[in-house]
Design a protein that fits this description.
Rossmann fold; 8 strands; 285 residues; 9 helices
Length: 285
Amino acid sequence: MTLENKNIIITGATAGIGKQAAFFLAKKRANLIFIGRNKNKSMKIIDSINSLNPSIKAEFFYADLSLQSHIARVFFDIKSKYKSIDILINNAGAIFSKRQMTKEGIEKTFALNHMGYFSLAKLIIGIMDKKINSRIINVASAAHLSGKINFSDLFIEKKYGFGWKAYAQSKLCNILFTYQLSKLLYSTKITVNCLHPGLVNTDFGNNNSFIFSNSFKLVKNLYGINEKKGAETINFLASDIQVANETGGYFVKKKKTHSSKISESIDLQKKLWDTSEEIFQRLCK
Ligand SMILES: NC(=O)c1ccc[n+]([C@@H]2O[C@H](COP(=O)([O-])OP(=O)(O)OC[C@H]3O[C@@H](n4cnc5c(N)ncnc54)[C@H](OP(=O)(O)O)[C@@H]3O)[C@@H](O)[C@H]2O)c1
């Protein structure tokens, strides 16, 4: 589909996969709405987009997406400037090798990687046109394959280890959430899909200790694909006519693929939805 003048929100576009997707969307002449926590980095990218083509509209909105209060405020800011949003790309995410809690009392991986996606989507749906093809794209990961979800220890107080358990759980949440939301929106023209971008040589993991980030760098250098290639499935889901009516899918290398057995559990999809809704109502409304 043509992206010309479509209003597209993208999170995590200051680096890595999100940054490459932003350049792709800009070349398609979409209006870009960046949500991020680093104004300088965002403005540099907006400047380089505008140096390619000054007529591209790209705007930055500030939010730390691990905080529900920031999501509520940024939605208000966006809503006061944009009547409707055509595409939401939930991409900002991280792994934390040391367990951290946000000041709102949520474990940080769950807060950023799952609640960040959940609450932003819930709010943005309110300003999406339900009668024309609008798209929600959630960047998940093959890490979900080792993910489990334990509702009595959602914030991983037990055996946090080096962060993988929390990360894999959060990426499983991205898929459970995608499946549940796609069902809830089935009677509309809003599609909801998620994807694994591949192992991509980005800054991912570099926010951690020297040993952790260097071990990650080694793996990414040896086996990772480049960032441009890593953005291809996001770009495909945002722009391709083939997926205009496709919803509730998990995509790898632009192909719809099976996700883990656990992610297909209707009970878990519903339970995660209800739990997230409770956090959203408490902190984000
Ligand atoms: N790289 C991989 O191999 C891989 C594989 C599978 C899935 N993924 C997923 O792909 C997505 C993008 O990762 P990437 O590899 O491109 O990583 P990256 O290069 O580290 O980029 C992460 C992006 O998220 C933003 N971000 C992090 N914390 C934030 C916060 N609290 N509030 C707002 N924005 C925040 C970062 O902004 P700052 O510039 O402010 O830090 C950055 O723009 C993630 O969801 C990740 O789980 C990556």
